[in-house]
């Protein structure tokens, strides 16, 4: 009973109603009490809660270590539900870190567990995660199938949060395919659902996605205003990775308007967030944007060095979209350095790969760079 009492307090710690130190202390008291009573299963469940608490506060190393310990216990005692949840959680950590192949394996294991216990909400959310992996790997058909499944399950069981994740993912797929009207419809539908259930974090995430879409629609000034507001709100809410993402959208909007000085200033503000983030995709995109700014400033040597490092890192983690964006920027640097024919060859090859993968929006940008040898990224 003592363990259960502390366990309840441990679970309440994720609401932010008490200090992280107090929550950790209560989680450890609950776990030790369960262990003293010989209840390994509930001790592992409490460890799972503690790991989630640490994950929320940015300690991914410790969270992953604890979740892996919990997996071993759940497997040993035959707790399928606990095993599925912990596998899901470790998969999310690996996804954040850009370890896409490992993340996919664990998330697929989580789905198998959720199916055995009939947790359809769990299945829907994992499908959305698998969609995100496929999207980063430029596997658009698989991404669409996973997001559609997440939306369908969410709709069937009345889980608006899961439905919104599916819709937001479908918006990303549509935007990558240059179906911008469809993308806006999906994002706006996701935003309505998230407002209905009062998910502040995901509401802001969707608004940032809509700002990114506005840039592609040719409304960079509108995107600048919205991304600026979202970044400030995310800063106040201490949602650091989301703040970094909003800042990167703001930087892109500024570059599209040839506001290079302002974009450079914004990147300087984002640097501390980038140094602390463990989100591989955001870190890669930060480097990509910084490379674009260096190119806009005609610092070709520094731009080439940074973009080459970014491209190799993206390729290593399987982030095909970022890799190809970096290759396009490198071709521009190559042309600006005097090798027009080599750059043209690189761009033609790149456009073919992008179109084959269904990244029509990126392929169109690559084609525009090919056709306009005097074009520079703003």
Structure description:
By secondary structure, this protein is mainly α. 84% of the residues lie in helices and 0% in strands. The chain has 19 helices and no strands. It has helices at 2-12, 20-36, 40-56, 60-77, 80-96, 100-117, 120-136, 140-157, 160-176, 180-197, 200-216, 220-236, 240-256, 260-276, 280-296, 300-317, 320-336, 340-357, 360-371. α15 packs parallel to α17. The radius of gyration is 22 Å and the shape is elongated. 53% of the residues are buried. The model has no long low-confidence stretch (mean pLDDT 91).
Quickly describe the structure.
The protein starts with a helix and ends in a 7-residue tail after the last helix.
Give the biggest beta sheet.
none
- Helix-residue proportion: over 70%
Q: What is the general shape? A: elongated
- Proportion of residues in β-strands: under 5%
Mean pLDDT: 91
Give the termini distance in whole angstroms.
Answer: 63 Å
Separate helix tally: 19
Structural class: mainly alpha
Strand element count: 0
| String of helices and strands | HHHHHHHHHHHHHHHHHHH
Which residue ranges are poorly predicted, with pLDDT under 50 across at least 5 consecutive positions?
A: none
**Cα-atom radius of gyration:** 22 Å
């Amino acid at each position: 009973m003592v363990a259960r009492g502390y366990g309840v307090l441990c679970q309440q710690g994720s609401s932010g109603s008490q200090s992280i130190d107090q929550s950790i202390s209560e989680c450890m008291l609950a776990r030790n009490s369960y262990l003293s009573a010989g209840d390994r299963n509930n001790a592992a469940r409490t460890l799972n809660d503690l790991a989630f608490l640490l994950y929320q506060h940015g300690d991914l190393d410790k969270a992953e270590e604890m979740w892996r310990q919990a997996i071993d216990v759940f497997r040993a005692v035959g707790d399928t539900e606990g095993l599925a949840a912990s596998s899901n959680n470790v998969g999310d950590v690996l996804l954040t870190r850009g370890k896409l192949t490992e993340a996919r394996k664990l998330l697929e294991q989580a789905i198998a567990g959720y199916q055995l216990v009939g947790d359809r909400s769990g299945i829907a959310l994992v499908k959305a995660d698998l969609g995100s992996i496929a999207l980063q790997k430029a596997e658009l058909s698989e991404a669409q199938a996973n997001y559609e499944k997440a939306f369908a399950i969410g709709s069937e069981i009345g889980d608006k949060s899961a439905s919104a994740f599916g819709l937001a993912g479908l918006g990303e797929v549509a935007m990558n395919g240059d179906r911008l009207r469809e993308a806006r419809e999906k994002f706006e539908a996701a935003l309505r659902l998230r407002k209905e259930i009062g998910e502040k974090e995901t509401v802001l995430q969707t608004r940032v996605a809509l700002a990114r879409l506005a840039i592609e629609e040719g409304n960079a000034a509108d995107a600048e205003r919205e991304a600026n507001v979202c970044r400030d709100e995310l800063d106040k809410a201490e949602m650091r990775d989301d703040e970094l993402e909003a800042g990167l959208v703001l930087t892109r909007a500024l570059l599209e308007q040839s506001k290079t000085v302002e974009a450079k200033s914004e990147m300087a503000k984002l640097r501390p967030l980038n140094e602390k983030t463990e989100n591989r995709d955001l870190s890669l995109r930060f480097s990509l944007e910084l490379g674009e700014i260096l190119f806009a400033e005609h610092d070709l040597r520094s731009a080439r060095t940074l973009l080459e490092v970014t491209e190799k890192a993206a390729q290593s983690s399987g982030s095909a979209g970022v890799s190809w964006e970096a290759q396009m920027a490198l071709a521009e640097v190559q042309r600006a350095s005097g090798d027009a024919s080599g750059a043209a060859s690189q761009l033609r090859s790149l456009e073919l790969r992008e179109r084959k993968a269904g990244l029509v929006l990126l392929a169109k940008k690559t084609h525009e760079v090919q056709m306009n040898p005097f074009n520079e990224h703003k």
